[in-house]
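Appendix B, record 7
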Amino acid sequence: MPEGPELHLASQFVNKACRGLVFGGRVEKSPISRNPEVPFESSAYHISASARGKELRLTLSPLPGAQPPQEPLSLIFHFGMSGSFQLAPSNALPPHAHLRFYTAPPGPQLTLCFVDIRRFGHWDLSGEWQAGRGPCVLLEYEQFRENVLRNLADKVFDRPICEALLDQRFFNGIGNYLRAEILYRLRMPPFEKARTVLEALKQHRLSPKLTLSQKIKAKLQNPDLLELCHSVPKEVVQLGGKGYGQTTGEDDFAPFRAWLQCYGIAGMHSLRDRHGRTIWFQGDPGPLAPKGGKSHKKKASGAQRGPEDRVEVHPPPSKAPSGTRRAWRGLPEQTTAQQPERTSLRDPKVPPVTEKGKRRGRRASSGCCRP
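Structure tokens (predicted):
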């Protein structure tokens, strides 16, 4: 799932790819997308982008004299599980291009496309960053740090640190792979109580006797959790490419795969948190680890699949009728990690989907596993 660095890289791509291009005409939405139509048409306009946390703002700015007269329009994009932007020739559009912006003549026509294979991504016509999201961990570090330490009484900090890190009210831009990499670097158990971890940061102060260069050196050598929430995403941006993506194939993802130290790496352990997300770690999981949760150790293999791309088959409850057990056999369950982001500020944004209408003794139908 794209996280803060991927949205930031996407905004950089849009600005670089669209620099000097003039777009024209109406914005076109694919007929199968459930997102809203974009009420914008102009004979000549520019496109620019900016990112904040897990959101990207795309701004359409009409040029002087463009017809019909039109005010600039901004769209807010959430990438869901697989969203991205691509620039392609208009006669060779990529599959799953659900929103298209066409260049104006003369010259070969190009199209900026919002591509979303799984269709969990969405755009908002308001042009405003989602209310309730905290400061961006990448671009607003000081505000981000202050927001966390000022609100430690919030009940989310009663939870394990690995779960608190996904709350976008406080950690806007942090997602599943980033939390694993951050905690691994600190050798911190993922199921340590969040407030215990963060309260210690309020007490920690560098000696006033240190010079500025000594303070900077100390921070670089021994960063705390909140500093890593800023510097680790920054490392991904500095890698270039596309950041998180396919585990095999495209060269754009090779630097990212080489950069990973914990997430989905052979030798690491994994557990599901209470929201169904897989957390990767090394060593002791911590005192708040799920009771009865079984830690799995990643084995070395040739071509590794991304941990969030795997689908696990869960056995039926032991008390379920035999007919239900047979129906479950071989049918993959859609995990919470595979649900789209929508409204909640926890990551992922939607609560786990519950199965409705299942009755005791009735054979389960294939429709319950529809993706």
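Remarks on this record: DSSP finds nine helices and twelve strands in the chain. The chain has two domains: 4-124, 141-290.
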